[in-house]
Q: What sequence folds into this?
């Protein structure tokens, strides 16, 4: 009971922050977010054991969250809007919209709460899953599908930011294979992202064809796979000389590789290859140098208009499809002979080798598979922004992606997705909005003029650092850890029976 | 070539670390289907010798033939795939994986699923995975762990069960020769007796040759058909338990010169319980 209220408060607080910062119709989106949080958490943390308990707890949690949303809208209306010199809509409008958001939260919350306690299993004989998790996923799926239409309907305008965030989440899922499963610290992951992007840029634009005088424009659907394969091949090429290194040494070498790749792309704009006196290529512009390569052909699919860049919904669905595909592939890898070999290697390299696992080959495959998924990410990203620019692939990309993996929980795909959402949305959505908000505040109130020079955006890396340090101190296993990782990190804290029985 | 009756033949095997000779020109054979032991006081070179067979160290000189083929200088995974399974002195299970997964890792080299098959999850890969799981459960059962323990995280198993799990994991590599590094270390008498029985059973039922390194004299004398004694890197005695038990040099190595000279007063290693 009190649990449910607590959960409701927490889910409502996020909504409260968003509503106060964004105002407008964002509250409806917050209704959904609050409902999902309240439903999922109340379901997971309820003391009860029947569906009625689940529904009751979720309803309480979502109700509390919804009430906070309504409160948030009132705060916005009565306190904030005058402060930033905006004319709010009539009070009754804001109250009605607030109530609507609260109702949405309760409905969604109850649905998730009920789904948590569904009994039995569904599915075909070979792949039966518990009905509760199937229903939860189905609900999440519905919300994911509905989101872009809602975004359009209430003119929220978050979709572009969401798409970029999802690209980073895809990268984090790939890096999780390398760092989380195989335990190899890779600090140059952005390099493979760049390789994927440039592969698409070269094969799916006029850049090469225009210079060479022929039409080389492959379909995106083919290039997507070529890009992933190229990234995987470069994973092998980088890995083969460096993987005998361990731990810190490997991290340093990958760091170097991550720096080299963008520099190479930046400087391959006047490529000359001379063998003796024979000039094979003279001043060939391979990568477009600093300005990069642009534009890139959009994918072509009947029924979806990717070319109209004002409507980003097709891109959103394409990316969701790629992410789901990647999740399936990563899960298959994890549950296979290869995934087991990765985990065994991470735990004890000598014991793994003594089980007949070829360490070098297994490490190479981990590196290469991790790179494969960032190739997907790079390919999509290049097509989405219609260009490949060397500045998009600097060190900060590698670091942010690594932060997502660590924050979410090493080795757990769901955790990585949650961690990625938190970092990316804070970075791209909330921080800029806070900054805008402060600007407005400063403009409307001459006494707060100093605020105009304060831009939270500039402190983003400081904030990342702070969050990471706090995570390492408070919850080193991440927000949603892999059960095994948690066990590894808390080894010293539990009574070790094995040792006692040796002594005894 | 493989027709010889010895599964492992070591000739003049030497390992030097800088100026220190840890194993000095040791000749050693293991008969096919036997249970042999290597004993010796601390620092005798037992573990170094073991590590040369398993590929952790490369011998400085000498030859090591397994089933007629040289294994000197192979990497640990190559040694394992050629048919030598091992356990470790201080248990080295994959502590955060389940018992079943530990055994499945042991089967790694026997499974054929390739990357592409895994990604598309082909029928063949699925069938292979299912049969590997069955075989792993059988193995857990065989060593007495029972399938109800299969999904427990291995480091939360009781100590004796961890030892058994390590044996099951080594058996999963499908060895012809099983190397056990102090398998009963830290066990109570009941656990020791059960494990001794298991080792004999493995040899009898699975046709696997066993080589032990062991400190527990009772176990060694009880189970071994042939014992090799190392001291300061040199083989000082070899033969049946009775022969080794009464060997002057062995008693001296274990208990010091004085004990050997006086005969009485010193405990004899063979009868120590």
A:
């Amino acid at each position: 009971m009190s649990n449910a209220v607590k959960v409701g408060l927490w889910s409502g607080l996020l909504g409260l922050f968003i509503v106060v910062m964004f105002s407008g119709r964002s509250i409806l989106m917050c209704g959904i977010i609050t409902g999902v949080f309240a439903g999922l958490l109340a379901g997971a943390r309820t003391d009860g054991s029947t569906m009625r308990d689940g529904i009751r707890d979720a309803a309480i949690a979502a109700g509390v969250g919804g009430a906070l949303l309504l409160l948030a809208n009132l705060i916005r209306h009565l306190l904030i809007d005058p402060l930033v010199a905006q004319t709010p809509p009539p009070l009754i409008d804001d109250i009605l919209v607030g109530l609507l958001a609260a109702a949405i939260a309760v409905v969604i919350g109850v649905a998730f709460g009920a789904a948590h306690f569904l009994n039995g299993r569904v599915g075909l004989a070979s792949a039966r899953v518990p009905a509760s998790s199937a229903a939860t996923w189905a609900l999440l799926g519905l919300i994911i599908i509905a989101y872009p239409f809602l975004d359009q309907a209430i003119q929220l305008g978050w979709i572009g930011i969401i798409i970029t965030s999802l690209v980073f989440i895809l990268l984090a899922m790939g890096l999780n294979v390398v760092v989380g499963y195989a335990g190899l610290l890779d600090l140059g992951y952005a390099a493979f992202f760049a390789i994927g992007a440039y592969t698409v840029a070269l094969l799916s634009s006029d850049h090469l064809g225009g210079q060479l005088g022929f039409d080389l424009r492959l379909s995106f659907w083919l290039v997507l796979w070529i890009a992933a394969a190229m990234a995987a091949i470069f994973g092998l090429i980088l890995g083969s000389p460096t993987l005998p290194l361990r731990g810190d040494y490997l991290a340093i070498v990958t760091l170097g590789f991550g720096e080299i790749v963008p520099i190479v792309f930046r400087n391959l704009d006047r490529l000359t290859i001379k063998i003796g006196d024979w000039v094979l290529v003279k001043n060939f512009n391979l990568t477009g140098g600093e300005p990069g390569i642009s534009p890139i052909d959009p994918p072509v699919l009947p029924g979806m208009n990717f070319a109209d860049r004002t409507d980003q919904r097709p891109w959103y669905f394409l990316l969701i499809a790629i992410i789901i595909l990647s999740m399936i592939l990563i899960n298959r890898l994890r549950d296979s002979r290869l995934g087991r070999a990765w985990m065994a290697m991470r735990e004890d390299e000598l014991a793994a080798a003594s089980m007949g696992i070829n360490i070098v080959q297994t490490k190479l495959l981990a590196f290469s598979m991790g790179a494969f998924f960032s190739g997907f990410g790079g390919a999509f990203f290049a097509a989405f922004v219609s260009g490949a620019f060397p500045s998009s692939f600097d060190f900060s990309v590698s670091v942010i992606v690594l932060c997502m993996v660590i924050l979410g929980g090493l080795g757990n795909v769901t955790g990585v997705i949650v961690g990625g959402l938190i970092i990316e949305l804070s970075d791209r959505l909330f921080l800029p909005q806070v900054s805008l908000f402060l600007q407005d505040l400063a403009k409307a109130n001459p006494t707060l003029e100093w605020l105009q020079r304060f831009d939270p955006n500039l402190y983003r890396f400081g904030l990342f650092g702070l969050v990471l340090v706090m995570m390492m101190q408070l919850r080193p296993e991440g927000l949603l850890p892999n059960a095994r990782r948690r066990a590894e990190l808390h080894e010293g804290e539990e009574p070790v029976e094995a040792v006692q029985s040796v002594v005894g | 070539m493989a027709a010889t009756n010895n599964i492992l033949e070591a000739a003049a095997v030497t390992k030097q670390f800088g100026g220190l000779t840890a194993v000095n020109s040791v000749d050693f054979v293991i008969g096919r289907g036997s249970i042999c032991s290597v004993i010796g006081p601390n620092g005798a070179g037992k573990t170094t010798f073991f590590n040369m067979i398993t590929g952790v160290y490369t011998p400085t000189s000498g030859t090591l033939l397994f089933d007629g083929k040289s294994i000197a200088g192979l990497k640990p995974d190559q040694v394992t795939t050629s048919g030598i399974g091992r356990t470790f002195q201080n248990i080295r299970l994959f502590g955060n994986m389940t018992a079943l997964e530990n055994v499945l890792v042991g089967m790694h080299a026997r499974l054929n699923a390739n990357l592409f098959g895994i990604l598309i999850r082909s029928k063949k890969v699925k069938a292979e995975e299912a049969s590997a799981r069955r075989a792993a459960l059988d193995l857990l059962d065989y060593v007495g762990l029972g399938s109800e323990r299969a999904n427990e995280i291995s480091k939360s198993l009781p100590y004796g069960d961890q030892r058994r799990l390590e044996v099951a994991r080594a058996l999963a590599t499908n060895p012809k020769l099983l190397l056990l590094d102090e398998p009963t270390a830290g066990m109570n008498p009941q656990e020791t007796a059960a494990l001794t029985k298991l080792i004999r059973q493995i040899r009898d039922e699975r046709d696997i040759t066993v080589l032990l390194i062991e400190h527990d004299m009772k176990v060694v004398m009880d189970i071994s058909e042939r014992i090799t004694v190392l001291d300061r890197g040199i083989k000082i005695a070899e033969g049946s338990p009775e022969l080794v038990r009464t060997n002057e040099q062995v008693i001296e190595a274990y208990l010091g010169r004085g004990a050997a000279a006086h005969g009485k007063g010193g405990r004899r290693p063979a009868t120590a319980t």
DSSP finds 19 helices and four strands in chain A. Residues 494-504 of chain A have pLDDT under 50 and may be disordered. The two ends of chain A are 46 Å apart (CA to CA).
